[in-house]
Amino acid sequence: MTARVIDGKAFAAGLRERVAAAVAKLKAEHDLQPGLAVVLVGEDPASEIYVRSKAKQTVEAGMNSFEHKLPATTTQEELLAVVDQLNNDPKVHGILVQLPLPKQISEEAVINAIDPAKDVDGFHVINAGRLATGQSAMVPCTPFGCLLLIKDQLGDLSGKTAVVIGRSNIVGKPMAQLLLAESCTVTVAHSRTKDLPAVVRQADIVVAAVGRPLMVKGDWIKPGAVVVDVGINRIPAPEKGEGATRVVGDVDYAEVAEVAGAVTPVPGGVGPMTIACLLRNATVAACRQAGLPDPEGL
Ligand code: NDP
Description:
The protein is of the alpha/beta class. It is 39% helix and 16% strand. The chain is built from ten helices and eleven strands. Strand 9 (233-236) and strand 10 form a beta hairpin. The structure holds NADPH dihydro-nicotinamide-adenine-dinucleotide phosphate. The site of NADPH dihydro-nicotinamide-adenine-dinucleotide phosphate has 25 residues, from helix 10.
């Protein structure tokens, strides 16, 4: 059996088109242009690439993009002052502070200083609580993107057995909440889980968010399961030359594709969904702040 390849790149392109259409409609009908502010502290090269890509896609969707680059020596107080200014700026509907932050700054303090209505990453404790209690929330982008891909494969998820590997606040926990809200029977596995392969073998839906290259093997997978690989791991690739590297997921794709019903590749699976969902969240946030209903199709 060979799994369907879940094309996250194509799905994300479709979502970005729907966001752009919703933004155009908001401008035409309500004179409202959603605005997304991204704050980058320090010079982490990976974060810089990510922030540039976010800004480009924000503008392509017809939204306002605001970038704030602060030096690595920025104090927590200075960063909180920037967050406060963005909280009070009516042109800014979404605020994203790029993580990780330099060690002199508490990520928790900064995240919880963002106005929950503008918290497009969905990391604020209020949004985590709203998601957990079934109230309208800003939902973290990566797990929301995973859910869209899973629903696209399976439609109604009610009664499905789901195993989420990883319990971080940014991926594993919100992923579990989203699947629970879809009436899945959810297990959250982590580094202390006993006999992980046997746990994963129960699952109709597997989401791997661990950060361990190629950990999930073919014989862990129930035949026909939908497997979503969140992992981004850089490993040596001597076949590409000395010192070369390549990116792989947490799932041993070659093995799993022989057993699963559908599987996301890395790259080209979950990755492109994250920014598309960020643009979606910023548009939804703009509507909610203006007292308008959430845009259709998002
Ligand atoms: P964290 O490091 O915060 O969490 C990893 C989780 O995996 C922890 O809950 C940990 O368990 C669990 N874990 C570690 N080792 C094992 C093991 N041997 N067996 C079972 N569980 C284990 O990572 P994140 O959630 O932030 O990210 C996970 C991966 O997803 C990373 O590769 C990251 O790069 C990627 N990522 C990709 C994104 C995208 O856009 N595609 C966005 C965000 C992340 P414990 O809690 O017990 O320590």
